[in-house]
Amino acid sequence: MTTVDGVLDRKLDRVYAMLAADREGGIVESEVLSLADNLGAAFGLPTDAPKVSRLRSALAELWQADVRHMDTDGNGLVDREEFIVGMRRSAAHDQESYLRRLGAMVDAWMSICDADDNGVIDQQEFTTMYARTLGASPADLAVAFAKLDLDGNGTLDSQEIRKATEEYYTSEDPEAPGNWLFGPF
Ligand SMILES: [Ca+2]
Ligand SMILES: [Ca+2]
Ligand SMILES: [Ca+2]
């Protein structure tokens, strides 16, 4: 039994919870892909919108390359423990391509969030995303946004997002700003 106590384990556990939605017992491909539709819907986008399709493709690649191999007991579901162990194994096996796949997913996620299409995420877009998808409070999200906005210019650009993605999925540092990528940590 893997215990969820380290910083990285806690973060992976949160990703698991997002992917698992309300399903008991583990995650399946259709549910992972439906995350794209759900996020799009939060921004009023139809399921065939290009931004939604892009996120669905990135999630499908992540499923094919990483997640589907994690069902080690072969019961057709990737449960919490299989997911956390599997993500750590993917990172150890080939961190560069693992981070490339995660980066593509996070970029697609953020492009849905970039409602005014100016290429960066402002605080209002960030707050809208997580208030609608995670139900986080605006005050907590303001703190998260300030952590991720490394140069303090009021927007998150692709470099800041990429750095946060790398930290989120690899760092054990409890103070890493990237820990806040998916809202309050
Ligand atoms: Ca399983
Ligand atoms: Ca924007
Ligand atoms: Ca910035």
From TrEMBL:
Annotated SUPFAM superfamilies: EF-hand
A Pfam family of this chain: EF-hand_8
Record SMART domains: EFh (SM00054)
InterPro entries reported for this sequence: EF-hand-dom_pair, EF_Hand_1_Ca_BS, EF_hand_dom
Ranges for domain EF-hand: 58-93, 136-171
PROSITE patterns: EF_HAND_1, EF_HAND_2
Protein name: EF-hand domain-containing protein
One example GO MF annotation: calcium ion binding
Alphabetical list of Gene3D superfamilies matching this protein: EF-hand
